[in-house]
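Entry, Tuesday afternoon. Goal for today is a structural model of the target with flavin-adenine dinucleotide bound, before we commit to ordering more compound. Inputs were pasted exactly as handed over by J.K., no edits. I checked the ligand SMILES twice against the vendor sheet because last time a stereocentre got dropped in transcription.
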Amino acid sequence: MPVYKAPLRDQQFVLHEVLRVVDSLRPMPPFREIDADTINQVLEEGGRFCAEVLLPLNLSGDEQGCRLDPVSHEVKTPEGFRAAFDQFREAGWQGLAAEAEFGGQALPHALQIAFDEMRCATNQSWTMYSGLTMGAYECLLANGTPQQKATYLPKLVSAEWTGTMCLTESHCGTDLGLLRTRAEPQPDGSCRITGQKIFISAGEHDLADNIVHLVLARLPDAPAGTRGISLFVVPKFLPAGEGATAGVGARNALFCGGIEHKMGIHANSTCQIVFEGATGWLVGEPNRGLNAMFVMMNGARLAVGVQGLGLTDAAYQNAAAYARERLQGKSAAPGSRSDKPADPIIVHPDVRRSLLTARAWTEGGRAFAYWLALMVDQQHHHPEASEREFAADMMALMTPVAKAFLTDNAFDGVSQCLQVFGGHGYIRESGMEQLLRDARINMIYEGTNAIQALDLLYRKVLTDAGARLRRFGELVQRFVAEHGSSAEMNEFVTPLADLADKVQKLTMEVGMKAMSNPEEVGAAAASYLRVIGHLVFAYFWARMAQVALQQAGTAADPFYRAKLATARFYFQRLLPETAYHIRAARSGAKNLMELEADLF
Ligand SMILES: Cc1cc2nc3c(=O)[nH]c(=O)nc-3n(C[C@H](O)[C@H](O)[C@H](O)COP(=O)(O)OP(=O)(O)OC[C@H]3O[C@@H](n4cnc5c(N)ncnc54)[C@H](O)[C@@H]3O)c2cc1C
């Protein structure tokens, strides 16, 4: 069975030594009392829950999958899932970062994300049931009426009820403007929701008393396209009463019409949900449903990036352990004179290349994702308007990068780790093939990575003439100015500064081309996102190297030596990928568009 050890040392390094989260959080009123000990204790406890409760259910959950009873339309999750969810609920984990007003613990998102990483590393399928609940909570918190908040939020925070997001229909995935689900207003202020959604994660299950669906639908006479979409809250059981003591009333007119049999995340139920005149209530303003849903989608996109991050670490830990034990071939190191028939495969440079790739994706991604979560806290709670605005800009700019770059890297990293196991990686028992299958969905849902790339380049960079990107560039410039004269930092700072310069030129060039041909944006976007992802990683890897260098000089802690070796690997072997992507992005749209569609 795969092993997992909570990466507490590295999490603490990122949170305390690199990001200095306590100093950053304390000016924010909800976190005045936060301290490093509290953060570390929560992570330790959370890591234990993940390793002891979630991990043992991961392989069996994958094998058993979810089962739909065609008569009752109810879904049974794999053995042990419910008990683990009960334990999670009783310990109050769901409300870790939720507002105290609704029963949460009001701890920072920067801590939540570190816990989420460990949950995804040990059981992505199980984690999704509560992950979507948090998304529903945030969406209702931002858009709900006081009565909706009072009714649903305490139940979502306590995990007695779970949440879903219902966007997709069979003919409408990326292009939500095509959606057909209808909402008919009723005299009592509710609406009757009719239509069929597909691919709804955690749409039906046996883990909670009620399931709160957030559904996109059209009101009568709504304009066509995305401007005519509204958001509704549609619970499986109608709520009886309000607040923490509310119960469930009548069954609503909706049911699970089927569950998908899919490549990965077998233990998360992916449902068709049929609404047959179900009772729902408008959330937010009519025809502004997509805007309201975006609150949920932004959080969810960062969460999906973190799913990729967790899976990469899980794969890495197992592959590294295997490589230290598996004996094949002899070391080619000069002077190596082992009299054993074979050495552990960790002696081979190419095995190390695979391991270091996964490790560099994991540790770079961890610094990036935790920083972005800190931006969530800053955006919501910082007393200075300028700090809140900066954080909002960073969130907007970096959400698509976190979603796409981390999940693309994860698929690569997990695949490299599977390779370390050779044929044994392809066999079920190693657990590696499950991780790879699970990692694949993260590149697709929550908006495919192609859509994230378009969002980044068109909406987040070109539409504001690069203003947000320049703000991130200022962080880079400040770091370069501070450390550029240090001889030992040169190997990190020089390539970082060089890439920042190239990004500026590339952005200008693509922007100019896009003015005469809008197709240039789509043609450049995927490569552009990888270049920006590397700019972010180079910045965080340089910051981590700088902290490690300070420590490596005084203490011989191997942790810092490993950090520096991985930083060097990143700069010398992964960052050069940008040269290819800059060339590809600059090559323009013609090489993609000249072939007629019927010649494909
Ligand atoms: C396991 C699973 C769980 C899911 N969970 C949920 C959920 O909880 N709630 C929910 O509402 N949905 C969910 N989805 C749906 C998911 O978000 C969609 O599958 C995804 O958004 C893509 O839509 P689609 O499958 O219809 O593909 P399409 O939109 O048909 O896209 C097909 C391909 O065309 C590309 N493409 C489409 N339009 C463009 C464009 N304008 N520019 C460039 N490329 C484009 C896409 O990148 C993709 O590669 C889930 C899906 C799966 C498989």
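Residues 164-168, 173-174, 199-201, 262, 270, 441, 444-445, 447-448, 450-451, 454, 522 surround flavin-adenine dinucleotide (CB under 6 Å).
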